[in-house]
Each structure stands twice: as C-alpha cells, then as structure tokens.
Specification:
The protein is an alpha+beta fold. The chain has eleven helices and seven strands.
Length: 294
C-alpha cells in the first residue's frame, strides 16, 4: 500500500491531493471536496482550505503533450497577464515536478444551463428574463473583447454565478486563437465557417463574428433546450465530423420563442454569413438592452 493509499484509508476514503503537490506550501493545506471532472488529460477538483473553496486543475503526467494539458498553464498565464478578463478568478498557478496546475476561486451560484431550464419550465416564456440573463453573459465577455481577446469555447456551463455577477470561466482555448492554432471548442456552438475550416485542415481562423455566432448559439440552447443544428438520426451522439458537416451545411433547428424581437436577435447572431451577424459584442449587447427596455 502506497503512502497516499494509507492516508486515504486512515481518512475514511477521503480523496487526497496528489503527493507531488504536497511540496507546494500554498496547496499543502487544501483538502479535496469532490472530483468534478476528469477528461482530455486533465482533472478538475473542488478543494477547500477550511474557510474558502477553490477549483484545482491538474494535468495528467501521462498526457503532458496533450493540447488540453498544455491549456492549463496557457489559461493561467492569460488570466495573470490580463486580470480584467475575469476579475478574481485566478489565485495561483505553477509547474511542479514537470506537471502544470492552476488554482482558481470557486464560483458559487447557478450556471446558465440551470437558469435556462428553470425559465423554460415556466408556463409563459419569459423574454424579459432571458434578455436580462443574456445581457449578463455578454457583459462577462466584454472585458476580453475590449482587449481583442476571444474566448473560443462558449457554452452554457461556462457562465456561472448569476446571483452576484456572471463569470465566464475556462479560457484555455483563448491562447490558441492568439497563436493561430485554434482547433475548435465544444462542437455544438461552432460557427459554420469555422466548422468548414476544421473539416478541411483541423485548424481554423477564429474571428469576432465567430464568437458572436457561438454566443447566439448558447442563447438558442437556453431558450429551446436543444442545440441550433440538426445532426441527424443519432443527434448529439453523432461523431464530431458529422456534427461539423451539419454545421458547415447549416442544417438548422428553428428558434422557438414567444417574442418575435428576441427570436430576430438570436437568428441574426446565428446567420450563416458572418457579415450578416452583429459585428461586435457591443452591438449585440446594445440590441439586447434595447429589447429589455421595451
């Protein structure tokens, strides 16, 4: 039995931090509360020092050349160099024994997924409430866009903390956009022109108008409970390339809201032609604000 296994047995099967992190004084006192997700070469833990809760991202030692593991340090450096992107998110980051890790403040409150589900379950479609939420989401992205930085992986679960102010998390793909090595975020929210490029060469140029599409696609999902594109008989279970082909071919599901004005805004953001979308986040936010005021 390893020392770590002996500690876990003595602690009643409590999860312990990986031993290599015990050399980091700032992490030594952290206790794991939950393993949130493990995928693509990284693990995300919910941890606590007894008074505060944090998110701890750790790369897998066996996957150090995996793009996802490299994103941990790239995201942390981006947030460190541009703190206004998401104020108060990053706490600390480093590389210990060759493995990257980052510590971030835990964001309490519901996600956009939770809010969308709650609003859809109401008897009457709440266009005003949706537009209010959408404005908070757009506002959380605004500081980055004002610096010329794009997120690249917008999805409902990345918008958190609406009870206070909305926070946009998971900036790991933003550095790849800057470097010109973008390989796509979650497929559902990929713009058609980006999907076409990914099919051809597995990399794509990602512009502001592609991010506008992604944000509108997230809005679509929150209003409708489904993604914007129709992937075929197996739906979300279809392979990634099949989904990309459906997006590039613009095989759409239709927006269904009881507000014609909100429907028009979402449809404009989802236009197949980038030139027909909102050309800036400020324009999109302004249109949402005008809708809310009426």
């Amino acid at each position: 039995m390893s020392p770590t296994e002996r500690k876990q047995k003595a602690g009643g099967n409590k999860m312990m931090l990986p031993p290599f992190l015990e050399s980091e004084k700032s992490l030594k006192k952290l206790k794991i509360k939950d393993k949130i997700i493990e995928r693509r070469g990284t693990t995300l833990y919910k941890v606590s020092n007894g008074t505060k809760t944090f998110a701890l991202k750790i790369a897998h030692q066996a996957s150090l050349e995996n793009d996802a593991t490299l994103q941990i340090l790239a995201e942390a450096k981006l947030l460190n160099d541009n703190p206004n992107i998401c104020q108060g998110l990053l706490v600390e980051f480093g590389t210990t024994q060759g493995i990257d890790w980052s510590l971030l403040n835990w964001i309490d409150g519901p996600s956009a997924t939770d809010l969308g589900k709650n609003l859809r379950e109401q008897k009457h479609f709440q266009a005003y409430e949706f537009s209010k939420i959408f404005m908070q989401m757009a506002q959380s992205l605004m500081p980055a866009h004002q610096l010329g930085i794009l997120h690249g992986d917008l999805q409902p679960t990345h918008f958190l903390g609406f009870e206070n102010s909305c926070k946009l998390i998971d900036w790991g793909l933003a550095p790849s956009i800057i470097a010109g090595t973008y390989r796509g975020g979650l497929t559902h929210y990929t713009a058609p022109e980006v999907a076409a490029q990914l099919i051809d060469r597995d990399e794509a140029e990602y512009k502001v108008t592609a991010e506008i599409y992604s944000l509108a696609a997230v809005f679509f999902t929150l209003c409708n409970g489904v993604v914007p594109m129709n992937y075929g008989i197996h739906g979300n279970e279809e392979p990634r390339n099949t989904k990309l082909e459906a997006i590039a071919g613009y095989r759409r599901n239709h927006t269904k809201t009881s507000s014609n004005a909100l429907t028009r805004l979402i449809e404009m953001g989802l236009s197949k032609n980038p030139s027909e979308r909102f050309q800036s986040l400020e324009d999109f936010w302004g249109a949402l604000n005008a809708l809310r005021e009426h």
